[in-house]
Design a protein that fits this description.
By secondary structure, this protein is of the alpha/beta class. It folds into 2 domains: 5-36 and 166-181 and 203-245; 40-163, Rossmann fold (3-Layer(aba) Sandwich). The chain is 33% helix and 22% strand. It has 9 helices and 11 strands. The longest helix has 13 residues, at 65-77.
Length: 249
């Protein structure tokens, strides 16, 4: 079946020349963006109840841009001064580069990973005796604590924001040729907003093992799996799929 429309369950990337724009131009398909989940910060008063004292840490693990946003928000709300000696360990170059929004990038101790936490573990192990703070959402991928514990990393979790389903009531339906998901919460939001959703001929692209698992739990068919040895990004996988599906268009 040919592909004419795609709904990506994330905000539209900033900047015109992004992989999805290139994909739409190349294949003449319609690509819409709509976040299926929202992030809401934990209030400083509620965070204090967890008895996590930010000033006691000097090394931080960031798994997302949201984690960075809410970490520095919490520092500001709790009047904790950003220490120039702090060390930041990020799962990817993109997450690490985002730190420049808050600190002078080239003057800080920033350690980017290779794209996932597993690739960052060897770097964390070199910080002997260090106690890391991990800012997170209320929903934490179970692979993260497992990897940290297996690596004998001393760490503390700090829940700084919540992930909730977006209100999609203004969408009349989700009748796109392909739906694209990046998290289990996106799948749950789909069914919270559209409890009677039937996949039928709609194809679903999903990123990450936990997202794939959420699809299986909801009896959805996984048509485009990412990452794989062949495709490390969603745009790559979509490009190849559309190329094959739209042959002879």
């Amino acid at each position: 079946m040919k592909v004419k429309s795609i709904l990506v369950s994330q905000p539209e990337p900033q900047g015109g020349n992004n992989p999805y724009t290139q994909l739409a131009d190349k294949h003449k398909v319609k690509i819409d963006f709509r976040p299926f989940i929202e992030v809401k910060g934990v209030a400083a008063a509620d965070f204090r109840k967890d008895k996590v004292h930010l000033a006691e840490f000097k090394a931080f693990i960031f798994t997302s841009r949201n984690a960075i946003d809410h970490f520095f928000r919490m520092c500001e709300e709790m009047r904790v001064a950003v220490n120039p000696e702090w060390k930041y360990f990020c799962v990817s170059e993109a997450v690490a580069f985002y730190l420049q929004k808050f600190v002078p990038y080239r003057k800080r101790k920033i350690y980017p990973g290779t794209g996932n936490l597993a690739g960052l573990i060897p770097t964390l192990k070199k910080q002997r005796g260090e106690h890391f703070l991990l800012p997170t959402s209320d929903i934490l991928n179970p692979d993260i604590p497992e990897l940290l514990d297996k690596g004998n990393i001393k760490w503390t979790r700090a829940t700084m924001y919540h992930t909730v389903a977006s209100d999609l009531s203004d969408l009349s339906d989700v009748k796109y040729d392909i739906l694209v998901f990046f998290s289990p919460e996106g799948i749950r939001s789909l069914f919270k907003n559209f409890p009677d959703f039937k996949q039928d001929k709609t194809r679903i692209a999903a990123f990450g093992n936990t997202t794939h698992q959420a699809m299986e739990e909801n009896q959805l068919r996984l048509d485009i799996q990412v990452p794989t040895p062949k495709f490390t990004s969603m745009s790559q996988a979509l490009d190849a799929y559309i190329e094959e599906a739209n042959k002879g268009k």
